[in-house]
TrEMBL record:
Residues of the signal peptide: none
Boundaries of every ChsH2 rubredoxin-like zinc ribbon domain copy: 7-30
Name this protein carries in UniProt: ChsH2 rubredoxin-like zinc ribbon domain-containing protein
Top-rank taxon, per record: Bacteria
Amino acid sequence: MTLSVFRCNACHHTLFPARYLCPNCGAADWRGAPFTQGTVTEATVVHQRVGQSNAAPLHLASVVSSDGPIVIARSEAALHAGDMVRLTLDSGGSIVASPI
């Protein structure tokens, strides 16, 4: 599955997640635009989760697209600021980043 960001048809402002009205011009006319890769701006690892004492570490990264929106994605391994990643959606709808 492919992740989409949302582009205003009136002013071309791009954002994620979708909103009812464009924060830039106030229009309510959107189209989806694919967000398939981006650059990691920040990354972290969650070692402990509430109610899951033996859970594996959870790798998370903030990924920015060339259009501007930032998404938070999971990854199988540690990522670092500046890494280029490919973005997909898993079967549960979570955003997943994989190194390019």
